[in-house]
Design goal:
Length: 204
């Protein structure tokens, strides 16, 4: 009886350990997103993660990290502190295609006045995309905002553009994925972790 109790206890410990490991990551298309990351000395939580599709093809898995979970774009844009969007590429993508999609996402989610304000940043990002080689399956991009430093972009851990100090520009970048005309509607819902809609019961 004592031996069986020890075996049962060991099995419970093992099960709890396994559950703890699973709870620490979210898996999307075979990519594991850590539940928390540290950026600018701040612990950020994974708000949501999903897949960017183009036609029927999976392009990348994306995750949004912020200080506390939010389910609306307005709340996320207003949230102070560091923010991160992580892209894990699921297929090869030319720098031209990725840069074009990036810039179109910016254009579709900013008005004329904002575009005029950000013309310098657009030029810098356009020049940056021209210098990046083809993005390969397995590559990772972090689009980061750190107060006191600015917006920067890391490719496989290496910074490829100097920080931009304007927080409004980072919010414009976030709207590529979270705006009214996102690059992928299903990805937007996943990154916002929108709760499922509950249909009302007409008979209640």
């Amino acid at each position: 009886m004592f031996v069986k109790s020890k075996q049962l206890l060991a099995a419970l410990v093992l099960a709890c350990t396994a559950l703890g490991v699973n709870a620490a990551t979210v898996e999307v298309a075979g990519i594991k997103f850590e539940d928390t990351v540290k950026l600018g000395g701040t612990d950020l939580r994974l708000n949501g993660a999903g897949i960017r599709y183009k036609a029927i093809f999976k392009v990348y898995a994306a995750g949004l990290y912020i200080k506390e979970k939010k389910s609306t774009m307005a709340d996320i844009l207003a949230l102070p502190g560091p923010k991160r969007v992580t892209l894990h590429f699921l297929r090869d993508v030319s720098n031209e295609d990725f840069g074009r999609g990036f810039m179109e996402g910016l254009k579709n989610n900013t008005d004329r006045a904002e575009r005029a304000k950000f013309v310098g940043q657009y030029q810098r990002f356009g020049d940056m995309f021209a210098t990046i080689p083809e993005l390969k399956k397995g590559d990772t991009i972090h689009v980061d905002w750190v107060p006191g430093s600015g917006t920067t972009l890391l490719l496989n851990g290496k910074r490829v553009i100097e920080p931009d100090p304007d927080p409004a520009f980072y919010n414009a970048l976030l709207r590529i994925w979270l705006g009214e005309k996102p690059v992928d509607t299903s990805l937007r819902k996943a990154m916002l972790a929108e709760p499922p809609k509950v249909e009302s019961d007409p008979y209640r």
